[in-house]
Specification:
Blueprint lengths: L2 H29 L5 H19 L4 H15 L2 H13 L3 H28 L1
Length: 121
C-alpha cells in the first residue's frame, strides 16, 4: 500500500470516527439513552454500505479505503459490546440480549441487502 493510500486510510478513519460519534449523539438526543439505538444505527448502516460496496464489485485499495478506513471506524464492535455489557450490568439481560442478537442478525441482513442493491448499480 502506498504512502498516499495509508494517509487516505488514516484520514477516512478519522472521518468515520467523527461520523459515528455525531450519529450516536444525535440518535441518543432524539431517542433517549434507554437503549443504544445510536450504536445499532451505525452498525446497521455500516453493514449496508459494506454490502453495497461488495455488490457493486468494489475491490482492492478502494475497498480497503472505504470498508476498512471509513466504515471500519464508523461501525464499532467494541461500543456494541460495551453497550450490551452495560445493559446486563444494569440488570437488563433481556435488553442486552436484544442488542446483541438484533445487531448481529440485522447487520448480516443489511450486508446481504446492500450486496443485492450494490449489484443493481
Amino acid at each position: 500500500m502506498s504512502a498516499l493510500a495509508i494517509a487516505a486510510l488514516t484520514g477516512l478513519g478519522g472521518v468515520g470516527a467523527l461520523a459515528r460519534h455525531f450519529t450516536v449523539v444525535t440518535v441518543a438526543e432524539r431517542g433517549g439513552d434507554h437503549f443504544p439505538f445510536g450504536t445499532l444505527a451505525v452498525n446497521l448502516a455500516g453493514s449496508l454500505f459494506v454490502g453495497l460496496l461488495l455488490g457493486a464489485g468494489v475491490t482492492g485499495t478502494t475497498f480497503t479505503l472505504l470498508a476498512g478506513g471509513l466504515l471500519g471506524s464508523y461501525t464499532t464492535c467494541s461500543a456494541w459490546m460495551a453497550d450490551s455489557e452495560g445493559l446486563a450490568r444494569e440488570n437488563r439481560p433481556h435488553a442486552a440480549a436484544v442488542n446483541i442478537f438484533l445487531s448481529l442478525f440485522a447487520g448480516f441482513a443489511a450486508v446481504v441487502i446492500g450486496t443485492v442493491l450494490g449489484g443493481l448499480v
